[in-house]
Design goal:
Elements lengths: L10 H13 L8 H13 L4 E6 L3 E7 L7 E7 L26 H18 L5 E7 L7 H7 L2 H4 L2 E10 L7 E2 L3 E4 L1 E10 L3 E2 L9 H17 L8 E10 L5 E2 L2 E10 L2 H21 L3 E10 L2 E3 L1 H14 L5 E2 L11 H7 L2 E7 L18 H15 L3
Parallel strand pairs: 3-4, 3-5, 5-16, 6-15
Antiparallel strand pairs: 1-2, 2-4, 6-16, 7-14, 8-12, 8-13, 9-11, 10-12
Helix pairs in contact: 1-3, 3-10, 6-7, 8-10
C-alpha cells in the first residue's frame, strides 16, 4: 500500500479542479456543467467506458484493472451544492449568488477524479472499479434513483464505498465504525385546525398557535421521557407558520420538522407517537390535526468486512492511530444508505481541519485533505482488488 507522499504530486492539479467546481456550484439534479467537467476529465485519463445521464445527470465510469479478471467495486462521490449565499471570502468563492458548495462535494468529486487519474494510469488491480458521480445528495435522493435505475446490476458492482469530509477532525485523520454510522431521516407536518377570531376575544376562538406551541413542547417528552436515554432519537420542529395580522387569531397553524434515529424500531415509535401526542393535545383544546409523515433516507449501516477493508486501506496511508475505527455515528442522514442497502460496503469520514461546519456560509473544503482522500481511494481499490 501507498503512503500519502505518493499522491502529493497530484495535489496542485486536483486543487485547481476543486476550486473551479467550487466557483460554479449547481443544485440537485441540475448539475449539468459539473457532469460535463467530470466526463471531460475522465475521458482525458483514457477511461473509455463512461456512461452519463443516469438519474438525469449522474455518471458511472469503469476502469478495468490489468491483473486479470475479478469483481467490480463502486466508489461514490456526490456532486451537488446547497442553496446558501457564500461568506467564505475565498478568491475561489461561488460565482453563482445563492448557491455554494457548503458541504464539500466539490472536494469529494475532485478526490475521486484524482484517484481516477492515478488508477487509470497504473491499473494495478484485478477486476474493475466503477466510479459513481452522483447528483442530488442534498435534496432529491439521487443515490436512491441511481440504485433504482439499476447501476448495481448494470455495472456488476459487488461492493460500494463512499467518503465524506468532517470539519473539526484533523487533516490526515479518518473516522469510521462498523454498523450504524448515520441516522435514518423522516419528515413530518402537523396542521392544527382551530377556530379563528378577533385577538381581543380569544375565549371565542380555538387558538391554533397556542395549541401548536403546546405540541412543540409535548414532542420533546417523546425523547426525554418516552425513549431509552441510551438510544438515539432526535425530534426537531424546524418550521412554524400561522397568522396574517396582529389582531387576528388564525383558523390554523402548521408546524413541520424531522425525526432522526439510529434504530429502525424507533422510526415506528416516532411516526406513531408524534401523531398521538399532537392529536391528544389538540383534542384537549377542542381542535383537530392533519398529520403527514414521510420516511426519507434509511439508516446507514456499514458492513463488517467492508469496514475492515476501509480501515486497512486508511491505515496503509497514514499511521494506525490516525484512523479512529470506533468513530461515533452521526445523527445526520446520507442517501448513500440506499447504496448500502443494495450492496455491502462502507462509508468513511476524512478530516477537514478547523474549518467552519458543513452547511455554513463560511465553509470551504480544505485542499490539504485532497492527497489523503485520493490515497485512500487508491489503497482501497488495490486492497479490495488485490492481484
Amino acid at each position: 500500500m501507498h503512503s500519502v507522499e505518493t499522491f502529493r504530486d497530484l495535489q496542485g492539479e486536483v486543487t485547481e479542479w476543486r476550486r473551479y467546481l467550487h466557483q460554479y456550484p449547481e443544485l440537485g439534479y441540475q448539475v449539468h456543467s459539473t457532469a460535463r467537467f467530470v466526463t471531460k476529465k475522465l475521458a482525458s485519463f483514457g477511461i473509455d467506458h463512461i456512461e452519463t445521464g443516469i438519474a438525469e445527470t449522474g455518471i458511472v465510469a469503469v476502469i478495468q484493472g490489468e491483473r486479470g479478471d475479478g469483481p467490480t467495486i463502486g466508489l461514490r462521490a456526490d456532486m451537488d451544492a446547497l442553496p446558501i449565499l457564500e461568506a467564505s471570502n475565498k478568491p475561489w468563492s461561488s460565482q453563482i449568488p445563492g448557491k455554494m458548495h457548503a458541504c464539500g462535494h466539490d472536494g469529494h468529486t475532485a478526490m475521486l477524479l484524482g484517484a481516477a487519474k492515478y488508477l487509470a494510469n497504473t491499473r494495478n488491480f484485478k477486476g474493475s472499479v466503477a466510479l459513481i458521480f452522483q447528483p442530488a445528495e442534498e435534496d432529491g435522493c439521487g443515490g436512491q434513483r441511481m440504485v433504482q435505475e439499476g447501476i448495481m446490476d448494470r455495472f456488476s458492482i459487488s461492493r460500494v464505498f463512499a467518503m465524506h469530509n468532517r470539519p473539526g477532525m484533523e487533516v490526515g485523520k479518518f473516522g469510521i465504525c462498523d454498523g450504524p454510522i448515520a441516522a435514518a431521516l423522516d419528515e413530518f407536518d402537523i396542521v392544527v385546525k382551530g377556530r379563528g377570531g378577533h385577538a381581543a376575544g380569544p375565549h371565542q376562538t380555538i387558538d391554533p398557535i397556542v395549541i401548536a406551541a403546546q405540541i412543540i413542547v409535548g414532542l420533546q417528552t417523546l425523547v426525554s421521557r418516552n425513549t431509552d436515554p441510551t438510544e438515539s432519537l432526535v425530534i426537531s420542529v424546524t418550521k412554524l407558520n400561522a397568522g396574517t395580522a396582529y389582531n387576528i387569531i388564525p383558523e390554523s397553524a402548521e408546524l413541520s420538522g424531522t425525526a432522526r434515529t439510529l434504530l429502525s424500531s424507533l422510526r415506528d415509535f416516532a411516526e406513531r407517537q408524534i401523531e398521538a401526542c399532537a392529536q391528544g393535545i389538540a383534542r384537549a383544546f377542542g381542535a383537530e390535526i392533519e398529520f403527514r409523515y414521510r420516511r426519507l433516507e434509511p439508516l446507514m449501516l456499514n458492513h463488517t468486512e467492508e469496514t475492515n477493508l476501509a480501515i486497512k486501506a486508511a491505515r496503509g496511508l497514514v499511521e494506525a492511530a490516525a484512523v479512529d475505527d470506533k468513530s461515533k455515528p452521526s445523527m445526520g442522514s446520507e442517501d448513500f444508505a440506499y447504496m448500502l442497502e443494495a450492496r455491502p460496503g462502507a462509508y468513511i469520514r476524512i478530516g477537514n481541519g478547523p474549518t467552519a461546519s458543513v452547511h455554513h456560509p463560511a465553509y470551504d473544503f480544505n485542499d490539504e485533505a485532497l492527497p489523503y482522500g485520493i490515497g485512500y481511494w487508491v489503497n482501497l481499490v488495490e486492497t479490495a482488488l488485490a492481484a
